[in-house]
Write a structure and sequence with these properties.
Number of strands of chain B: 14
Distance between the termini of chain A: 24 Å
CATH superfamily of the largest domain in chain B: P-loop containing nucleotide triphosphate hydrolases
Radius of gyration of chain A: 28 Å
Low-confidence stretches of chain B: none
Structural class of chain A: alpha/beta
Structural class of chain B: alpha/beta
Oligomer: heterodimer
Mean pLDDT of chain B: 91
Helix content of chain B: 25-40%
Strand order of the largest sheet of chain A: 2-1-3-4
Order of helices and strands of chain A: HHEHEHEHEHHHHHHHHH
Mean pLDDT of chain A: 86
CATH class of the largest domain in chain B: Alpha Beta
Shape of chain A: elongated
Number of helices of chain B: 10
Helix content of chain A: 55-70%
Strand content of chain B: 25-35%
Low-confidence stretches of chain A: none
Strand content of chain A: 5-15%
Number of domains of chain A: 2
Largest interface: A-B, 19 and 25 residues
Number of domains of chain B: 2
Number of strands of chain A: 4
Distance between the termini of chain B: 33 Å
Order of helices and strands of chain B: EEEHEEHEHHHEHEEEHEHEEHEH
């Protein structure tokens, strides 16, 4: 079998490269160990400044409560709103809480008071979440005081008890990690084989292969198999890392993940082949791939849910294989979904794999 | 017996005509040279008869196989050495050779006798990566890799470009030996001095063969009176001679200036010497000379 010799050559070249073998280890480490911390949407330590016009024991207690929360960090207590604003302008604070004069009295005697909260929303997530955190903190705070002062305040109220399904601690990392594994596959199985094939074109070595009896199909297959293997090894390493570092194991079957990953890898290599057919230099291939990969990652639902995108953006996302893999990874990891539960993703990925690879084969035919 | 039969091959890339109706035959065991400058269409022609690209028009058969229909069979019988070094630079000498042997379904051992002379020179570097070899060594390795499956015919596209004169000479000696082993060889080169080493040559210009014959016949066919002149002021010499009465075609030729004269007897060598002395040339040497392939090329290219 000729393919045996071709594979031998590919692996030799791969391991002889100074950088590539390291990449297979380094890449999952960076993605799984580092990225969850960088991409987290949990907002902590919002720098807060309090304008205290009341200066009572209650206002002091509120300041302490704010500071004690891990969401806020009390930078300063000042006398005027202007002073607080200066801190915001210099970037030392993002949240101003203005406590009016007579706040303590109003709260304990009248059972209610007003507070002004102003928040820097340059980072809108920070703004929205900061506001929400502050609201719940104040609610608790006032409830405590009102109840303590007058048991008479027996206003009827609805208590909502929330159960966070599949991610009980609402830890952002748990939703990020499964999705991030997609990034590993995109790079190793989409980017690298495309770049490798174009490199043979650029160096002219493909010329020497083309005059041998080795068929195009065998040649390409020998190019892809190593990257399929490398992608799956890196993915497994990603599983291992997320278990070691974050204690995460998939609720569902690992085999389901491997199955979908293989399907996804096929779509990515198909795309890589098309790009490599149409490019004559490595530079060109890498930039075209980068263009698609950026879109694929951004639209995948990894960073923001696809459902919250406008309709037209959702329509674009429907054509990205990454969207389906991210969904699969999240569902299997957190919910324990099985192949039967993920029919839509199965169909979408299969169709894409077939279409992209057919296209790749046709574009090869055309070139020759 | 014919090894290669090419008939009226045409190929264009967009508006550029690369080959404009090329026809030629190469006999079995012949050493056939394609001589012409860069951009004349040599590589395109090789790529067509090596089954790498398709011609727009015309047919070509190599070793009895059509280059389009029977390309699969043909590929087993061709050894092709492209102009650019295109072996794997990150594999060693030995690995490259055994890789190309195995993709052809053979082993180094089986056809070692064919490359023995050449490979012996590479032996000390067999663990070295191909990318780290010198130009001459790279070329020898490429030749070994093109030969390792014992092809019937060998295509060498500018094998001696960028190679030092000693290695060039060695290389041509190797080709002569391979020819004795019964391998048909087609070689292209921009160096006119290598042309005389071929059995027959084709002079190519802008996608067209100007002539196909033995080097000796081509030289003998040079009809004009050819002179060589040199002086101590070579740069001005070319212009001075060019404007002289009776001089037809005048061009720099190595360390001399070659020129042909009109056949009407209007040229006088003594008058030229006098004229050159008058405009300050010293150390003037003027003599009749025999046409080289380069002179023939220059003469044919003007027509």
């Amino acid at each position: 079998m000729v393919i045996k010799y071709l594979l031998e050559k590919e692996f030799k070249q791969f391991f002889r490269n100074k950088f590539m073998p390291k990449l297979v280890i380094l890449f999952p480490v960076m993605i799984i160990a580092l990225m969850p911390w960088a991409t987290t949407l949990d907002i902590k330590n919002i720098n807060t400044v309090i304008v205290d016009h009341d200066v009572s024991s209650v206002s002091k207690e509120l300041a302490e409560t704010v500071n004690a929360s891990s969401y806020f960090k009390l930078r300063d207590v000042v006398d005027s709103y202007e002073e607080a604003m200066t801190l915001v302008e210099f970037g030392d604070a993002d949240l101003i809480v203005e406590i009016p004069a007579g706040f303590g009295d109003d709260l304990t005697r009248a059972g209610g008071s007003d507070i002004l909260a102003a928040i820097n929303t340059v980072n809108s997530t920070k703004g929205v979440l900061g506001q929400a955190y502050l609201q719940s903190l104040l609610q608790e705070f006032s409830a405590r005081h009102v109840a303590a002062s007058s048991a008479a305040a027996l206003s009827p109220s609805v208590n909502i008890s929330v159960k966070n399904m599949y991610n009980p601690l609402l830890d952002y990392k748990y939703t990020m990690i499964p999705g991030l594994m997609m990034v590993i596959l995109v790079l190793l199985c989409g980017f690298l084989p495309a770049a490798n094939i174009v490199q043979e074109k650029e160096l002219g070595t493909i010329e020497q292969i083309n005059v041998t009896p080795v068929s195009k199909f065998t040649f390409i297959l020998a190019k892809l198999i190593p990257y399929w293997a490398i992608g799956l090894v890196a993915l497994s390493f990603g599983f291992f890392l997320s278990w070691i570092i974050f204690g995460m194991v998939p609720v569902g079957s690992v085999l389901t993940i491997y199955f979908f990953s293989c399907l996804f890898i096929l779509t990515m290599t198909g795309m890589g082949l098309i790009v490599s057919n149409k490019s004559s230099t490595m530079q060109q291939a890498v930039f075209v791939m980068l263009f698609f990969v950026m879109i694929f990652i951004m639209m995948s639902g990894l960073l923001t849910p696809v459902e919250s995108m406008p309709d037209w953006a959702q329509a674009i996302a429907a054509f990205t294989p990454t969207k389906y893999l991210v969904n699969v990874l999240k569902c299997v990891y957190l919910k324990g979904s099985t192949v039967a539960d993920l029919k839509t993703d199965l169909i979408a990925l299969s169709v894409m794999a077939v279409v992209l690879n057919t296209w790749a084969i046709l574009s090869y035919r055309k070139n020759n | 017996m014919l090894s290669v039969e090419v008939s009226d091959i045409r190929k264009r890339y967009g508006d550029t005509v690369a080959l404009d109706g090329v026809s030629f035959n190469v006999g079995k065991g012949e050493l056939f040279g394609i001589i012409g400058p860069d951009g004349a269409g040599k590589t395109t022609l090789f790529r067509i008869i090596a089954t790498l690209i398709l011609a727009d028009e015309g047919t070509a058969t190599v070793e009895g196989f059509d280059v389009v229909k029977d390309y699969k069979e043909l590929r087993k019988r061709i050894g092709y050495m492209p102009g650019r070094f295109s072996l794997y630079q990150d594999l060693t000498v030995e690995e490259n050779l055994s890789f190309f042997a195995s993709v052809f379904g053979t082993t180094i051992k089986e056809n070692y006798y064919l490359i023995e002379n050449i490979y012996k020179m590479l032996e000390p570097f067999r663990k070295r990566r191909a990318g780290k070899l010198s130009g001459g060594m790279k070329q020898k390795l490429a030749l070994c890799c093109a030969l390792i499956h014992k092809p019937d015919i060998l295509y060498l596209d500018e094998p001696t470009t960028g190679v030092d004169p000693v290695s060039r000479k060695e290389f041509w000696e190797m080709l002569k030996k391979l020819q004795q082993d019964g391998i048909t060889i087609i070689v292209s080169t921009p160096y006119m001095d290598e042309a005389v080493l071929c059995d027959r040559i084709a002079l190519i210009k802008e996608g067209r063969f100007m002539t196909i014959d033995t080097p000796e016949n081509i030289r003998a066919g040079f009809a004009d009176e050819l002179w060589a002149v040199r002086s101590d002021r070579m740069h001005e010499l070319l212009y001075a001679v060019r404007s002289f009465r009776g001089v037809d075609n005048c061009y720099a030729f190595g360390e001399t200036v070659h020129f042909t004269t009109f056949g009407d007897g209007s040229f006088s060598p003594d008058a030229l010497k006098d004229r050159l002395r008058a405009v300050g040339h010293g150390d003037i040497r003027l003599e009749r000379t025999r046409a080289t392939i380069e002179d023939c090329y220059m003469s044919l290219a003007r027509e």
